[in-house]
Each structure stands twice: as C-alpha cells, then as structure tokens.
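Researcher: We're reviewing a set of sequences before deciding which ones to prioritize for further study. For each one, I'd like a predicted 3D structure that I can look through quickly. This is Pyrroline-5-carboxylate reductase. If possible, include the structure in token form so it fits the rest of the review sheet.
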Amino acid sequence: MASQLTFIGAGNMARAIFGGLIDSGYPADAITATARHQATLDTLAARYGINVTTDNAGAVADADVVILAVKPQLMREVCEPLGEALQIGRPLIMSIAAGVTIDSLAEWLDDAGLPIVRCMPNTPSLVGTGASGLFANDRVSDEQRQLAESLMRAVGIVEWVEEESLINAVTAIAGSAPAYFFYMIEALEKAGVARGLAPATSRRLAIRTALGAARMADQSEFDPATLKQQVMSPNGTTERAIHCFEQAGLEGIVDDATRACLDRAEELARELQKR
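Model: Here's the predicted structure for Pyrroline-5-carboxylate reductase, in token form for your review sheet.
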C-alpha cells in the first residue's frame, strides 16, 4: 500500500515532485495537495487526479509524509497551525524551503521529536533531471530515509549530506546552479549573434551543445577535466578559447559566485529564525 503524501503548497516544485511520482506509477489517489485558492486546486485535480483541499490541518492528519512546499517567508505562518494535527499520525516531515532550519521547523510545529528531512531540489526537477540534496535529523528512521529518497528520485538524482549546514553548499552547487548554466547559454548565444549567426540559430546551437556536454559528462567514464582535454587539440581553436577562460580567472569567478550564494543562504536562515 502506497504511503499517503500531503503537499502543503502546490507550486512548481511541488507539481514537479508529485507529477514525477505519478508518471513513475505512484497512485494519484494517495497524494493530497493544498493551496489557498480553490481554482488552483480544481486545475490540479483535473490534470493529475490527486486529492485537493484548502484545509492544511485536515490534510496532514492522516498523512504518512507531509511535504512543506511553501515559500520560506510563509513557512512559520503555515507551520504553526499544524502542530496539533500532526500529533495524530506523527508523519515524516519533508521541507523543500531554502534557509529554513530543522530547529525552526520543529519550533514552529511545536514538536522537537518529529522526524524531519530538509531537501534542496533544483528547477530541472520540472523536466525529470533534478539534483537534490537531503539531510535528516536523528528522528528519521532508515525506512523513512528510504521513503524520502524514493520520492525525490522520481524527479532526478539524490545525494545525502551528513551535516545540515551542507544543505547551503548544495544550494550553491545545485539548487541555484541552473541559473549559472542559463547565464553561460545566454552569453554563448550573444557571442554567436555578435559573430553573424541568427539569434534563433545561435540559441539552438548553444542549448544543444550544453545538453550534449552535460549528457557526455553524466555518461562518460572520464571526469570533466579529461573530457575537456579530449576536445582541446594542441594549438587548436578550443585550446585558444580555454586559455581565454583561464586568463580571465573563470575558476576563481565560479568559486566567488558559489561562496556568495552560500553566504546568502546562511543569511536567509538567520533572518528567518528571527521572524
């Protein structure tokens, strides 16, 4: 029998997860989603066949897993009314909100003994190629860890971290990182246009090349450094381009950017704890 899942919030990431689960064969009637607006819920029910409601407390009462999928700034407002209802079944709690610590969640849910998993997915989960980092508190059983992992594997790969603070590193390397690659694609598109290519042609070439390179890196027995060298003929065109990146300090720029991302994630966590 499938575990009963309740999604508090039904935005893009929640839809990616339960949509991926349903596509993988998970029974739609074992999934409930909540939202503030009935029109949104009616659309979800029609498209996915899941259960829907505006009643958060009622939705969590019989759940085996509660996935908190609201914006970080709304998390306290959403969690505080749920404490009493969660005492009925004491489900596994999964949060996909950036910056909200397990201690904050436990405080707002009025129960430090709840099993809680923090999850940092990324937007490629929307197309089934996500990368998620997970951290579990010591109340989470082995069976619940396996369940949390299986849910997130419906939309991509899963990596566990052993310290909660490392979720911020996951944010820097995976959660926020799709934007880094979109930026590179955007820059390549502009460079192609500057050298005479039609905008649509330049964009298609840049996107397909990024897709192909990522697929090669994912499937190859070689590491990215080796794959890079395999494209670089001595004194050739690629080598000249890579030297330009090296002279501009690309590795240092990436390191600075990920550090800035991680620092901001830590700042957000402190800001949310003060609310």
